[in-house]
Amino acid sequence: MRQFSLILISFILLGLTACDNDTPGVDRSLLVGTWTGVEAIIEEEGEPTQTDTEEIATAVIVFEEDGTFIGSEIDDNGDLEEQDRGAWALTNNLLVVTIIDDDEPLNSTSEIRELSESSLTIYLEAEEESSGVEEESSIFKYTVKYRKTQP
How far separated are the first and last CA of the chain, in Å rounded? Predict the structure, then answer.
């Protein structure tokens, strides 16, 4: 479950860059707030392989105005359990984040496909090695939708 949570949060929280350069076309203030997962669509080699609505609905991300974030997961009791924290910034239509981990920071970049007062859709492509097969990898495309639950 932690790995899934890390993947979902990394869609949003990828690669830290300077905030002085925020995109005029993307309103930074719209991203600030609490977002809850609605749907994750995963494609492998151009074919949809998985649509997730149940597990993504447990993902909660809080983007703070100061450029930090907290990624949490709703546990079986309905309580928030913190998973990750880090920093975020906007560059053009890209959301760049750094997840602060005990070992090394995890950097990632997602394309913002939609951002409004109530809806956020991000897109990420990642190359992942196939398990158990040496030097084979697949390109995975993730489209993740969130809804704002608190400003």
Answer: 27
Q: Which domain holds residue 68?
A: 2-150
CATH number at residue 12: 2.40.128.280
What is the reported pTM?
Answer: 0.75
Q: What are the tokens at 40?
A: 């994750």
For 41-78, write each residue's pLDDT tens digit: 999 877 877 787 888 889 999 999 999 999 999 888 88
Of all residues in the chain, what percent are helix, strand and coil, respectively (each to 5)? 15, 55, 30
Across the strands, what pairs with 142? Answer: 42, 124
- Residue pair 83/9 in contact by the 8 Å Cβ criterion: yes
The number of domains in the chain is: 1
In Å, how far are 26, 28, 31, 53, 148 from 117, measured between CA atoms? 12, 11, 8, 21, 7
In this structure, are residues 26 and 115 in contact, taking their beta carbons and an 8 Å threshold? yes
The backbone torsions φ and ψ at residue 11, rounded to the nearest 5 degrees and listed phi first, read -60, -35
Task: Reduce the secondary structure of 93-148 to three states and give it as a string.
Answer: CEEEEEEECCCCCEEEEEEEEEECCCEEEEEEEEEEECCCCCCCEEEEEEEEEEEE
Q: Residues 97, 4: contact at Cβ < 8 Å?
A: no
